[in-house]
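User: I'm curious what two different proteins look like when written out as structure tokens. Can you demonstrate?

Assistant: Sure. I'll show them one after the other, since each token string lines up with its own sequence. Here's the first protein:
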Amino acid sequence: MTKPAIICSNSKLEIKLTKLLAAPLLEYTRRQFEQQLARDDSDIAQREQAMRDREKRLAEARQAQAELLKKQRELDDTRRELDPTVERACRRGLPRRASRRAKRPMKNMPQGRGKGTDHRVDAEADQGTQALHRAGLAAAAG
């Protein structure tokens, strides 16, 4: 086995590396590799933490989505149950309520003459009657 050697860049001489000469080079190289390994380990740890955080948020989002879907299904079920009930109640209750409204006057509404619930129509009719009356008086006086 040959001993490790380096060649001098200036003199081009081969210098045999002994343990004494190689020790500082080996230590320097070992430190560089350890530092690079520590940086890589730190990067990996950060990425793993980011993945765990992302997975946790994803699990929370899935849980929230599952709860939302459950509530939506419950709401749909309740709506399906209530639709026929409300429809039956409306069918039974509408004619009765309509007849009650017809019997009693609406609150805060002035009462017109006759059946008139549209007071503009009653006012226009009154103006027409007054105009006819004046025309009749004018014709009688003339």
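Here's a second, unrelated protein for contrast:
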Amino acid sequence: MENKSNPSNPGAVVAVRGSVVDIQFDAHLPPIYSLLHAKEGKVAIEVLAQLDAHRVRGIALTPTEGLARGNSVEDTGGELKAPVGKGILSRMFDVFGNAIDRLPAPAGVQWRNVHRSPPPLTQRSTKSEIFETGIKAIDVLVPLERGGKGGLFGGAGVGKTVLLTEMIHNMIEHQKGVSIFCGIGERCREGEELYRDMKAAGVLPNMVMVFGQMNEPPGSRFRVGHAALTMAEYFRDDEHRDVLFLVDNIFRFIQAGMEVSGLLGQMPSRLGYQPTMGTELSGLEERIANTDTGAITSIQAVYVPADDLTDPAAVHTFSHLSTSIVLSRKRASQGLFPAIDLLQSSSKMATPGIVGKGHYLLAQEIRRTLAQYEDLKDIISMLGLEQLAPEDRNVVARARRLERFLTQPFFATEQFSGIKGKLVSLKDSLDGCERILRDEFKDYPESALYMIGAIDEAKEKFKPGKPAAKSDSRATAAAKPDGKPAADSKPDVKPNGKPAADSKPNAKPDAKPGADSKPDAKPDGKPAADSKPDAKPNAKPGTDSKPDAKPDAKPGADSKPDAKPDPKPAADSKPDAKPDAKPGADSKPDAKPDAKPAADSKPDAKPEAKAADSSPDPKPDVNPSAEPKPDAKDSSKAGVIPKPEPQATPKPEPEVAHAATDAHET
């Protein structure tokens, strides 16, 4: 560490309150931001205020254990400094510039003050260029600016660090410049894992890491960002190279400043933040800028307390960023990773003059579709998707497919998900979104678009037109040609009304007299057709059939549920059809057949040989040859057997259930 002591200006500790130390100097007071050493250099203190002519107040950058009143303090005569030069590449440092990677101190480096001014406006560059990340949702809707600042906003556990790590993996390999990672107030484990991952990926030679993690005092966390930015400015201004500056987490910088402000006794502002938060944040963010010699592209993770985007820390950070990527806890709970809220996220680069007219119009159409889906969610939750208009249903389908297509497997999470990471170009991302909006993948299930790279991978996961295997227990029933009860027929099949039309697939009717019928096969209307299961023979002529059955049966006609009547002889009868019964008509389901030959009956059918069916409440047809109602005393046509008094018929429901059960067992 290049911060040597100045023995010409000694001092003594007069008060210690946590990390705040008051020191008295008899000769002259050290200036603001001067670095002081106590306990033989074990304790570093930065001067932040001058209390009077002989006392200063500073914040300790190291733990203050063992520090007491009367301990001597030495003035270094300068400010906190950081090492710069080519020798710092592939190394890891703390806030003082000490190597913490268990390797010897870097050689051939220079030391510069960490407190520097932003570049003047005359030296800044105004060129705008897209910075591709290989992540579909970011490149399409919220593109990053080369030389700009992008922020990843989100609460705890929504994937900020994972997304930042993925960007490092995707961009460092294609980054021709230098990458600097600054860890502020985050987990030490993440820093160690990042170091090993970058070393294994072979990108460490062009990378520098600086850490002031959460185990450090607030003073160290408050200054580590300045130390890392000093290194980035060296590569931009002296080496004339582009720099990728990654910060995790910028909120911890604000939080450390809040702790320091409270320890110094300053009056807090809203929600306990320091009154100088805007000034402190601007002093750091404005140094991240493009110049004529190089550019610093910064991506920063921003913790949002309690997922409240109106928090002062988040609000002040928003104003410094060109791209704001908001992570949603709701999307994370649905498994849609990266969990980017595509409607709340925004980018100043998403304009026709920068990204192009085609890209801009496509991004607007995607946002419009997602916004309409968001508005329809309340209606869907209350009434269901079926109650929407056809166009609204199409919008919902497109939006849901877009949401799943914009998910992406990460290289950083391969060991957890078991899915190989994908790097998708901007061209493939735009092509996939456009084809989804054209309904090219409307026949694909949503799962085919989930966690893929380019859109063509969906065709490999699912091929439309594949016949789905469906098992139907009734379709497997086999016909028995020996006159014994056969399989049940399939209900609700509407035949075309012609004689001998088959009502069930794969059933071949037999039109010959005396031949047994296949399951659901229509007979030709001739006698000697076999009866179905649960058929009750020896019924008297004219007994009642199924309640509410209104047959229009003619001689030899086969009855079938939901069959439309035909005016020709031997046509199928339909339940609830008006009767136009003539002698010899077949009975409906649940009719009791006579022993004499008649037409084939359906399951639970009780056929009658000569007399027509009589329904409890039939509506007679105007046909003079039709049979009268059950309470009629005689027939309207010669040769018709008089109908006896109607007998009470059992309810058909148990018989229908019994018939269906027997048919399946058969």
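A detail about the second structure: The two ends are 91 Å apart (CA to CA).
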